[in-house]
Amino acid sequence: MFRRLLVTATVLAALTLLLVPAAVADDDDVATYRVTITNLTDGQPLTPPVVATHSKRFQVFEVGDPARFELKEIAENGNNAPLLAALAGARRVFDSTQAGAGPLVPDGTPGSAMFEDSVTFTITANKRAKFLSFVSMLICTNDGFTG
Q1: What are 83-103's pLDDT values in tens digits?
Q2: Which tens digit of pLDDT belongs to each residue from 108-131?
Q3: What is the mean pLDDT of residues 54-58?
Q4: Nearest C-alpha neighbor of 47 from the set 59, 37, 62
Q5: Which of 6, 24, 49, 102 could form a disulfide with 31 if both were Cys (CB 3.0 to 4.6 A apart)?
Q6: Which residues contact 12 (CB under 8 A, 6 or more apart)?
Q7: DSSP assignment of 26-69
């Protein structure tokens, strides 16, 4: 039995998410997904993304609304800790994680040999957590993020 996970976000056109169910536990209706995030932008490094599975009634951010403190910290400082803490305590969030330890730098960017251009990780979801959201700082911007 495979679960469908919807990606909710305004995503850079060149940033791809590949969702592959890694396992499904029949007894408690929890699925584990193997997710790959690849930076295909033209020279725009990203901080390690914060990723969460959640219900439809939860939103990490709303396009056009003022950013809350946790997003401001990512956009201005690349600080994932406040958002990770908020997600861990959110009632409608099933699972959350920081994907990777270093920046995602596209091939051809100066210094890109020191960093990865993609990260693969696993995350879990249940039948109520049908959405996956991510947030990452656009490093070469003045306080920008993508999600």
Answers
A1: 999 999 999 999 999 999 999
A2: 777 777 788 999 999 999 988 889
A3: 94
A4: 37
A5: 24
A6: 41, 44, 146
A7: TTTTEEEEEEEEEE-SSS--BPPPEEEEE-TT--S--TTSPPPH
What is the C-alpha to C-alpha distance for residues 27 and 88, in angstroms, rounded to an integer? 24
- Dig out the tokens for 75 from the structure: 């956009």
Token pair for 11: 């995503």
Residue with tokens 């929890």: 30
The H or E element containing residue 119 is strand 118-126
What's the chain's length in residues?
147
Tokens of residue 14, six digits = 């060149």
Strands in 15-25's sheet, in edge-to-edge order, are: 15-25, 30-39, 118-126
